[in-house]
Amino acid sequence: MGSSSHQKGRIRTKKPLGIQLFECVQGSPISFRSCQALVLVLTFLSYASYHATRKTTSIVKSVLDPKTNLGMLHWPSHLYLQNLKGSENNTLSSGWAPFNAKDGTALLGEIDLAFLGVYAIGMFFAGHLGDRVDLRILLTIGMIGTGLFTAAFGAGYWFNIHSFYYFLGMQMMAGLFQSSGWPSVVAVVGNWFGKSKRGLIMGIWNAHTSVGNISGSLIAAAMLKYGWSWSFAVPGIMIALVGLTVFLLLPVSPDVIGIQEDLHFKDSEKTDMDAPLLERSSEAKEKAVGFIEAWRIPGVAPFALCLFFCKLVAYTFLYWLPFYISHTAIGGQYLSDSSAGVLSTLFDVGGVVGGILAGHISDHLDARALTAASFTFSAIPALFFYRIYGSVSLTWNIALMFVTGMLVNGPYALITTAVSADLGTHSSLNGNSRALATVTAIIDGTGSIGAAVGPLLTGYISARSWSAVFTMLMASALVAGLLLTRLVVAEVVAKMESRRAPAPAAGDLPMSTTTTMDEP
């Protein structure tokens, strides 16, 4: 395909200023491999910084609303207060109005709902927009805007603001700007990397989610001693700086830096890993896929609905785990807010392992749905044991939290990365390169609605019983697995038939999402 016809179907983008400067100093064009490495690093840091800013709220909750649930625990409140007063590192503060009132937990839940609700709605529009504009500009605006409104939330402390609607507005704006992140980074990575071992590669790359959660928790916890405002301001400044770096350096696709895909590799050297994720064969195929058309791609709906419940569980832990830990006696003792925030990072450490493991297993079995369903069903007993035995001792809490994080975040990571990429390059699209961001946004946007519902329900249910919260989480994991039943059965049947049939040719596509989901 000629470059002129190719460019007509592509979005006009400019080579980043940082790459232009680098090539000027070096005296030669930047290599394809260097660009691949640069894309991986920048997109990893970008989304890690998104999650770092998203995590701060969960760390600060216990400071804003220190009295919540004192009478809702399994132990008498006077014993709880006595333990608090006896600890130098865990004193009961007065909190911050309006969150230190009787309905403080519900208000914090509504803040989470506002953020995630706007985030979910914005995701659908961001994905639609991402297939039509320069992804580098979209990502930069999203990151700087996120940093601005995250810091503005913390500024409420400095300016002595106690209006609930101020904090609500700041979180809604932050959620709107954050929605541009995920469709953008997945689409950029999809432009540079091929299909070989996609589950494993994206499982490792998707560690940015847990790395961001961990770094956000550690930074927010460390900043609490200077005032909770800094727990928002520092991550906000960091994501804005990373956003500027993205603007200066991120190449969104090979043709942006002047490399034509048919010149990347000689035929004898070209492999699946080197090949771009999407092959373009005609100008007509460059028309952006519509929202309804993307929903009709086989497999998008069941995986999107499954992610709804997966993210409901994952984001309940994201927003409420530090709060739960600080309000639960572990080994007969209560941890300080900062200690609870640090301890909660082990859930995300388990999530890193789970994401990589799920990706590797799905690659080995060539069965995305079977892998995701296995993890979600296994998460049910893990959630049960963490609730019952997590308070026995710190060792038990750490071990069970790690396993729970692994099983909860494994399918979440798999669906948002490898599955989204599989469906964004589904055979029904005939190689269209302008669908990946839209499909990714649909799947993750639907999941984000569940992410909004989970923390909101937790804010109300936890006021009655944390056991009821865990029951809700176990039921959600069960439904998530059941939604994939038809796809799992189809994958198993396909595997059994493939063993009886002759081995397919090397060029065939035995991908489960394209083989089993085309059925009406």
Topology of this protein?
Blueprint: H1 3-9, H2 17-26, H3 32-64, H4 77-85, H5 104-130, H6 135-158, H7 164-178, H8 181-192, H9 198-205, H10 207-223, H11 228-249, H12 291-295, H13 300-326, H14 337-343, H15 345-365, H16 368-389, H17 394-424, H18 436-461, H19 466-482, H20 485-500, H21 512-515
Describe the protein's architecture and organization.
The protein is 69% helix and 0% strand. The chain has 520 residues and is mostly helical. 54% of the residues are buried. One of its GO terms (biological process) is phosphate ion homeostasis. Keywords: Membrane, Sugar transport, Transmembrane, Transmembrane helix, Transport.
In this structure, how is the largest beta sheet organized? none
What low-confidence regions span 5 or more consecutive residues with pLDDT below 50?
A: 1-10, 68-92, 261-285, 506-520
Give the rounded overall mean pLDDT.
80
Strand pairing plus helix content: what structural class? mainly alpha
User: In DSSP terms, counting alpha (H) and pi (I) runs of 4 or more, how many helices?
Assistant: 21
- Give helix % range: 55-70%
Task: Give the strand tally.
Answer: 0
The arrangement of helices and strands along the chain is HHHHHHHHHHHHHHHHHHHHH
Beta-strand portion reads under 5%
Q: Separation of termini?
A: 34 Å
* CA-based shape: globular
How big is the Rg? 23 Å
